[in-house]
Amino acid sequence: MSYRRAAVLAALFLWSLGGAARGDDVTLTSRDGSVEVTGDLLGYDGEFYRVDTVYGVLTLDGSGVVCEGPGCPDLTAFVARFTFSGARTMGEVLMPSLVEAFAARSGYGVERRIVDDTHFDYVLTDLASGALAAEIGFRVTSTEEGFADLLANETDLVLSTRPANATEITLAQEAGLGDLSDPRRSRILALDAMAVIVSADNPMKGLTLDQITRIFAGEITNWSALGGPDAPIFVHMRGERSGLSQAFADRLLTPRDLAPAAATIRHPDNAALADAVAGDPLAIGVAPYSETGNAQVLELYGKCGMVSVLDDLTVKTEDYPLTLPLFLYTPVRRLPLLAREFLSFARSPAAQLVVARSGFVDLRLYNVPVAEQGLRLVNAITEAGDEVLLDELQRLAMTMDGTERLTLGFRFEQGGAQLDPQSRSNVEILAQQIEAGAFDGRPLIFVGFSDSEGPADGNIRLATRRAEEVRDAVLKAAPTADRERLSISVEAFGEAMPMACDDEEWGRQVNRRVEVWATQR
């Protein structure tokens, strides 16, 4: 589906709402009879009415009014209907698992109906009454197709492995669908990452990001250039419209004005890609961390010798540079009550257990004791620059002593002052924990770090300011927290504990971060 066709369809749909295709007449009367509103019924979501009246479009709570007229819905027979469209990575396993878990916890029977290779539906039935409660449709293709369906009004929610791009944001605004760049329009349901994979028979254990970029751009075509055998490199990727391929290009290729190699072998799904790479010692591919199959995941080497490994912890903290948050984009209009209940469930601890069991990285918060952070302390010592004095390293070690690192991190958009999407999600996660009392009487320290560019004292000031900004954002997101039971402070160590090499931009981006340490229980 082209963006032009999608935008035209969306515009025609919105025009039809304001033109001749009007709803039926209804009269909504307050239960005490003191207020009466008459107009055309535009919609009912099982909880609220939307009525076009002489006063404009009004939204009224159904529990407070009585509906009369030919357009009144049958309240006892209301069925919530909504649809998802987008990334196959999310739609094949993650979302079905969440829907089935939600149904089980909410007292619904659930039936999955296969329509075709890309479409399936879930039918939810109230177990107590036997009444049909919801019909949930899925179209599983790609992130790009999901946004195209949203623009054409062919879906309610978009499954995306990347943020909406500039074209999608512009077309949505032109179609009257609101601002997709608004953080309130999306939420992160789970985490994944872009894994660079080879066959287990390939002797290669790791590559630099520069080498990976040049391989996938077709500039390195023989394994001998990487210290391997004199043999061609066969590059494998998902289809060009896949969110994974687009995210990989956005992170590595586009910043260097490069394009994927013309000889790239494309695959329709992640399983096919992983199988093809695992079976060919000369192949290399990029796959989701959640679907690497029998292939070997390469480490990322820095030029200075530091190694970035891919595991659940480095994905949660964004210490691995190729994380892949899994987004759910929501519409500007109100969804049915059951849909909103499902979205609330999807971020709950129970749902995050389902996320982990489905093979993805969940959003639950853990603690990492100092005893398990030995490599970080080694890096702090071995990679300390001339401006990081022994006194500062000792202060770092003393501050860490008796604390645990929380498994979330905060990083800012490259070249900007705004937190990146995963970090904005982490603000909500930590704020919810604080409001729930998880840190009452347990001191928290927001700790800022920087790269090594510029003077050390300036980096300390910058790291302090960023730590303060994150602290303030978390407290603002936790308005009901009992401030008297909280002990929150800010520390900064600038360039004293790098997570990656500072001689590369991706390494500097990883090093510019804010961590949260909590005293041990």
Task: Describe this structure as you would to a colleague.
The chain has helices spanning 3-18, 88-106, 143-151, 166-174, 209-216, 243-253, 270-278, 312-316, 337-346, 349-357, 374-382, 390-400, 421-435, 456-476, 505-511, and strands at residues 25-30, 36-44, 48-53, 56-61, 65-68, 80-87, 108-114, 119-126, 132-141, 157-160, 186-198, 206-208, 234-238, 265-267, 283-288, 296-297, 299-301, 307-308, 323-329, 367-369, 403-410, 444-449, 488-494, 513-519. The strands form 4 sheets. Strands 6, 7, 8, 9, 10, 11, 13, 14, 15, 16 and 19 form an 11-stranded mixed beta sheet that branches. Strands 4-3-2-1-5 form a 5-stranded antiparallel beta sheet, with no helix packed on it. The chain has 15 helices and 24 strands. The longest helix has 21 residues, at 456-476. Mean pLDDT is 89; it is low at 1-22.
Question: What's a concise summary of this model?
Answer:
With 521 residues, the chain is of the alpha+beta class.
Topology:
Blueprint: H1 3-18, E1 25-30, E2 36-44, E3 48-53, E4 56-61, E5 65-68, E6 80-87, H2 88-106, E7 108-114, E8 119-126, E9 132-141, H3 143-151, E10 157-160, H4 166-174, E11 186-198, E12 206-208, H5 209-216, E13 234-238, H6 243-253, E14 265-267, H7 270-278, E15 283-288, E16 296-297, E17 299-301, E18 307-308, H8 312-316, E19 323-329, H9 337-346, H10 349-357, E20 367-369, H11 374-382, H12 390-400, E21 403-410, H13 421-435, E22 444-449, H14 456-476, E23 488-494, H15 505-511, E24 513-519
